């Protein structure tokens, strides 16, 4: 399954809302879709799993939605620490795959 | 405290072999699947493969780009997972991460740098 993320780069200011898109080449069954955040020099951090469930310790300004082939990660109000690269991942079918990433920059 | 610590990263020539280790502590390793993800410098994340627990017959799966060259294994008595890499290519150069998930919590190692170059 190929995952295509858009936009490639999102330029926003702190306090603004961020909407990131992830489109799959075929249906992601059983809602096995996750979102990750990665900052330079760090391992990825799981934000959302199962399309809309927040991982442990993730603030509620992060939310996931969607079904089938179209998924969205929303950050309701950007905090300075949210500027990073975000990846979607499907784990419904092996091989699992990641999208190419969306950079959220100031 | 849950920890995953990778080791074994190195410089290796094209066509060579290398084995990475992922040592786990602080959780029930034997009941957890372990997966591997790599990231070339300045590039995105690439899923490499995963190995399931004994209860799931240690089933493995691999990305097409590494299938037939990389082998996943684990030693539950040592709380360690392994990634054996052979027939290495320059395009295998990357930081390799191991990770595991328990419910709503996922843990990652710090990464091991593998450089394939002559």
Number of helices of chain B: 0
SS class of chain B: mainly beta
Beta strands of chain B, count = 11
Low-confidence stretches of chain B: none
Helix content of chain A: under 10%
The shape of chain B, in one word, is: globular
Rounded to the nearest angstrom, the distance between the terminal CA atoms of chain A is: 31 Å
Describe the structure.
By secondary structure, chain A is mostly beta strands. Chain A is built from no helices and eleven strands. In chain A, the strands form two sheets. In chain A, strands 2, 4, 5, 6, 9, 10 and 11 form a seven-stranded mixed β-sheet that branches. Chain B has 118 residues and is mostly beta strands. Chains A and B meet through strand 5, strand 6 and strand 10 of A and strand 5, strand 9 and strand 10 of B.
Explain the layout of strands and helices.
The complex is a heterodimer of chains A (106) and B (118).
Chain A (H helix, E strand, L loop, with lengths): L2 E4 L2 E3 L6 E7 L8 E6 L6 E5 L3 E2 L7 E6 L2 E6 L9 E6 L6 E2 L3 E4 L1
Parallel strand pairs in A: 2-11
Antiparallel strand pairs in A: 1-3, 3-8, 4-5, 4-9, 5-6, 7-8, 9-10, 9-11
Chain B lengths: L2 E5 L3 E2 L5 E8 L8 E6 L6 E6 L8 E3 L7 E6 L4 E6 L8 E9 L2 E4 L3 E5 L2
Parallel strand pairs in B: 2-11
Antiparallel strand pairs in B: 1-3, 3-8, 4-5, 4-9, 5-6, 7-8, 9-10, 9-11
């Amino acid at each position: 399954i190929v995952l295509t993320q858009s936009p490639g780069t999102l330029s926003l200011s702190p306090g603004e809302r961020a909407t990131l898109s992830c489109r799959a080449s075929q249906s992601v069954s059983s809602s096995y879709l996750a979102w990750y955040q990665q900052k330079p020099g760090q391992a990825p951090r799981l934000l959302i799993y199962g399309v809309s469930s927040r991982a442990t310790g993730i603030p509620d300004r992060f939310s996931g939605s969607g079904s089938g082939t179209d998924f969205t990660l929303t950050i309701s109000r950007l905090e300075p620490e949210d500027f990073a690269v975000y990846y979607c991942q499907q784990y419904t079918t092996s091989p699992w795959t990641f999208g190419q990433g969306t950079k959220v920059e100031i | 405290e849950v920890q995953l610590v990778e080791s074994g990263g190195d410089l290796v020539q094209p066509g060579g072999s290398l084995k990475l280790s992922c040592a786990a502590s602080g959780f029930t390793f034997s009941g957890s699947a372990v997966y591997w993800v790599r990231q070339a410098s300045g590039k995105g994340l690439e899923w490499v493969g995963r190995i399931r627990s004994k209860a799931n017959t240690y089933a493995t799966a691999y990305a097409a780009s590494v299938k037939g060259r990389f082998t996943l294994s684990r030693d539950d008595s040592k709380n360690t997972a392994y990634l054996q890499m052979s027939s290495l290519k320059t395009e295998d150069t990357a930081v390799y991460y191991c990770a595991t998930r328990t419910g709503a919590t996922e843990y990652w190692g710090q990464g091991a740098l593998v450089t394939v170059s002559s």
